[in-house]
Structure formats: C-alpha cells, structure tokens
Design brief:
Structural class: alpha+beta
Shape: globular
Oligomer: single chain
Strand content: 15-25%
Distance between the termini: 50 Å
Radius of gyration: 21 Å
Helix content: 10-25%
Number of helices: 9
Number of strands: 13
Length: about 350
C-alpha cells in the first residue's frame, strides 16, 4: 500500500507555477506492456507536434543493449490527465532507435502509413477490450473464493449483485477517467467469467484506434493501482471451463456503411479468409501462441486452425451482427484478436488485407 490508506494525497492541489506535467507513455519490448515517465513542460499544450522528443533506457525495457541503450520516444497523441488533472496531460509516444529510425518494436508507424494510403476509404474501427481483475498478488482472481472456485458461468454476464459482480468501482472509475481524458470510450459490461470485464472504444478512424486503446489500457491499470488490484490482459487467464479474453475488432469502410454495403462486407470477409494464418500471427504478441490457449472452438471462439463466418455467430472467426444483415449495411466483427493484441498491429493487418491487397 502507499501509506495514505486510501486518502487523497494532500500535496496534489499545490500550485504548479504555470508549468504542467506530461506523462510520456510507450510500449516496451514485450509488445504488450506499457512504460511511462513524467516531463515538466514550461507551458500547457495538447499538440503532440509541439512536444519535445525524449528518451529512455532501452536496456531496461528489452529494447536495447546496455552499451547503446538510449531509445527515443516521439509524442504522437495527447490526452487530458485524469489523475493530475488541470492542464497536465498523458502523451502516447512511438519509439525510435538511436539514429531516429523506427524501432523494431514500433508497430505504429507502419499502421499510420497504411492508414494514410487508404484514407479515402474512411476505415472505422471499434474494439471490445476484455480483461480480468486479480488481487494484489496478480495470481488470485479478484473476488474469487480463497479456496476453490465460484459457481459455473451463467449468471455473471451483465449481472448485478455482489454475488455476481466484482470490481464495479474500478470499472466505473475507468469509464469516467476515459471520458475526461478524451478517449472515445463507448460502453462497458461485465463478462461471462466472474471478475472479467469488457469496455469498448470507438468508432475511431484510422490510426486513432490504436492511440485511444493503448491510452485506455494505461488508464485502466493506473486506476487499478488505487484499488490495489492487478489487471490482466492474458487471453486465457484461468485454465479450464472458463471463457478467455479477446479484443474483438469491429470494422467498416465508407462503402460498407452506405446503402448496399453488405456486399462490400462479404467481399472483405472473403479476403480475410484467404489470409487467416497471416492474421493469427499478428493477432497476439507471441505470434499466435497466446491465442492457441483461447481459440479452441469452445467458450464462444472459433478454432485457431479454421476460418469461418456467420450472422450473429459468436463461435465464428468473423461475426456479422444480426442488425447489419437486416439493414444490408454497417460493419463486421473480427473475433480472433487476443486481449493482449497490439491494436496498431491488428488494424494494420486488417487494412493491408482488406484495402491494400497485401
């Protein structure tokens, strides 16, 4: 614990003398964990192009060797800071090597370039981020019995009551913090497994999807610190007859959203099916190994080895919502990305297959 026993830090209302704090956030060498540190700015700004490029010790984040350890972080998106508030900001950054080139762990630059190539198609994304809460040890699911397991899945999804729902205070705090920050959070709900939740971000156009989802993940983990709870994005955190966690990605282009767009949706799905294994490799940070534990054909998933699609089919690789089929236009959902997937990598792969013919 932090020694304040849950009380407000008494120093956080001190005047900042016209300066502000910028918390630089970047993705480390794992491709799934976030790091960050604070920089003082002489004056407030929300424009990433006016912020200085900074650096960090890449040998401590699996991104460099000790004899050449400096890695640059370049600001790419700014959000209001819901913790420090005022004119303080959160800054999403991309990583560059010691020569200023794109670092091998930087998946954002490729995504941004490819989004620019198909900007006239106006690709929209909405991602459903699932996660699981654990107690402070990171081993025991939050709110689960000390010895044994809760009752079987069934009453927990979108449930209410302390016997069914755990962690709602964290969920509500995260939702409001994202709204304050300017993240396009769209909703939230309790999931099928107890102590597992989902929130949705979007619709976002192009590169904005990755920026907003990564920032929302950082905020969630920072909120959980206040409750001494650990957030897991592992796609199968509990073995056995329990649902895994995904990062279902909803996709549309302007053509799909217009009248008769269902035909464009089916065309895109056919293209995705031809590149199924290429997508699987990109849909978790371990080249598909993490998703092997989740995409089994059980617990509302398709088999990792088989591509299929259907209307309202939650056991398919791709689901077309019932309302979309009825309207003849809209979007479709790729259910394959794992909960710890990099949204830059996921949306980049989708665009390359669907719009750029790669």
């Amino acid at each position: 614990m932090d020694g304040l026993d849950g009380q407000t830090n008494p120093f956080m209302d001190l005047d900042q003398g016209g300066k502000c704090q910028a918390y630089y956030i970047w993705i480390d060498g794992s491709g799934q964990f976030l790091r960050g540190k604070t920089k003082t700015l002489m004056e407030p700004t929300m424009d990433p192009d006016t912020l200085p490029v900074w650096n960090f010790d890449g040998s401590s984040t699996n991104q460099a060797l000790g004899e050449n350890s400096d890695i640059y972080i370049k600001p790419v998106a700014c959000f209001k800071d819901p913790f420090r508030r005022g004119e303080n900001i959160l800054v999403m950054c991309e990583t560059l090597d010691h020569e200023g080139n794109v670092h091998p762990t930087n998946r954002r630059r490729s995504c941004a370039n490819n989004m620019d190539k198909c900007a006239d198609l106006h690709p929209w994304f909405g991602i459903e981020q699932e996660y699981t809460m654990f107690d402070f040890t990171g081993v025991h699911p939050y709110g689960w019995p000390v010895n044994g397991y809760p009752g079987p899945q069934g009453p927990y999804y979108c449930g209410v009551g302390s016997d069914k729902v755990k962690g709602r205070k964290i969920v509500e705090a995260h939702y409001r913090a994202c709204m304050y920050a300017g993240i396009k959070i769209a909703g939230t709900n309790a999931e099928v497994m107890p102590s597992q939740w989902e929130y949705q971000v979007g619709p976002c156009e192009g590169i904005e999807m990755g920026d907003h989802l990564w920032a929302s993940r950082w905020i969630l983990q920072r909120i959980a610190e206040e409750f001494n709870v650990v957030i897991s994005f592992d796609p199968k955190p509990i073995p056995g007859d329990w649902n895994g966690a995904g990062c279902h990605t909803n996709i549309s282009t302007l053509a799909m959203r217009e009248e008769g767009g269902l035909e464009a949706i089916y065309e895109a799905i056919e293209l995705l099916g031809k590149k199924h294994m290429e997508h699987i490799v990109e849909y978790d940070p371990s080249g598909g190994e993490d998703n092997k534990r989740r995409l089994t054909g059980l617990h509302e998933t398709a088999s990792i080895n088989k591509f299929n699609y259907g209307v309202a089919h939650r056991g398919a690789s791709i689901r077309i919502p019932r309302q979309v089929a009825a309207d003849g236009k809209g979007y479709f959902e790729d259910r394959r990305p794992s909960s710890n997937a990099d949204p830059y990598q996921v949306t980049d792969r989708i665009i390359r297959t669907m719009c750029l013919g790669e």
